[in-house]
Amino acid sequence: MLNKYARAFFTRVLTPFAAFLIRRGVSPDTVTLIGTAGVMAGALVFYPRGEFFWGTVVITLFVFSDLVDGNMARQLGRSSRWGAFLDSTLDRVADGAIFGGFALWYAGGGDDTVLCAVSIFCLASGQVVSYTKARGESIGLPVAVNGLVERAERLVISLVAAGVAGFDTFGVPGIHVVLPIALWIVAVGSLVTLIQRVVTVRRESAEAEAQQDGQERPENASHGSEAAT
Q: Quick one: DSSP state of residue 105?
């Protein structure tokens, strides 16, 4: 849900910037690559050191590239399978870097094994949630469910919480608990979403097989009738 409305809003806002980049001869693929590199730098340089505020600022600046490159492709009329593949693949890389940065912090200076494990679970479950939909669609199923926590929700919850937790560096007391709470919310929400998608694929698969069996039986019955005559 958030994914739908957020994309619609920011697409309108970023359209002039996308047009500016096009006039400067920048390609959508270049924006995708630079955006992913920026997110990875923000997550893997700042987060492992506990610098959540500045890490989130850097990530937020680059994460909008995910909308800018698509906007540019539409303006140029160059939407392609390669562009969609590259964008989707690098989204997974960026997500992994963000939650990997959290895991590195809690494995090191954050000194919390449980939250390190929760961060790793958020990383892995987010990848699997995306995979279930892609895999279901690749075998011809609609996978007609989005689920409780999609990529947009995971990013917004995590980045907002990290940015707020970063104010602990500026002496705001007690604010550091925001990030652990957010990670637990993302972990539980991702698990629920994964279950929703698996159940949906199981149901759609059973319906498709039942429909196929129903189409084959009348044909077999007519062959048997012809043989009898």
A: H
CA distance 28 to 36: 12
Ordered mean pLDDT values, 10 residues apiece, the chain (229 residues): 62 85 92 95 96 96 86 84 90 96 97 98 95 92 90 93 91 89 97 95 92 72 51
Per the annotation, the verdict on 91 as an active-site residue is yes
For residue 171, the 8-state DSSP code is: T
Answer positive or negative: Cα dihedral of 108, 111, 114, 119: negative
pTM of the model: 0.85
Q: Residue 10 belongs to what H/E stretch?
A: helix 2-23
90 Cα distance to chain centroid: 10
Distances (CA, A) of 164 to 87, 94, 122, 146, 213: 28, 20, 19, 28, 55
Among candidate residues 91, 111, 112, 168, the one labeled active-site is 91
User: Cα separation of 108 and 85, whole Å?
Assistant: 34
Distances (CA, A) of 187 to 14, 78, 157: 31, 37, 11
Rounded Cα distance between 26 and 73, Å, is 11
